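Review form for a predicted model. The reviewer records the input and the model, then writes brief findings.
Reviewer: anonymous (R2)
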Amino acid sequence: MAHDNPIHDNSSKRILARGCDPVMSAHAAKNIPPLLGNPSYVATTTDEEFFEKLAADPWSVIPIVETHDERMTVGLLREALAKR
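Model under review:
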């Protein structure tokens, strides 16, 4: 599959994700990293877990990347990773 934007090596970066559905979050944690250059991707599904992990570790995507349209997730995360 050809990409308009090449996938850069982001294996040294980390993403903390906040999802709503545990099954979809687990699916995203498995499938999204290869599309983004293999950053570490930690999925959370509660505010408590998200803020606990946010405070405990450094993260590469600092801007909040938010969408209700899951089709936009990879593109928005690629843009955010490119800024770091």
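Findings: The two ends are 26 Å apart (CA to CA).
Further findings: The chain has a mean pLDDT of 87.
Recommendation: see findings above.
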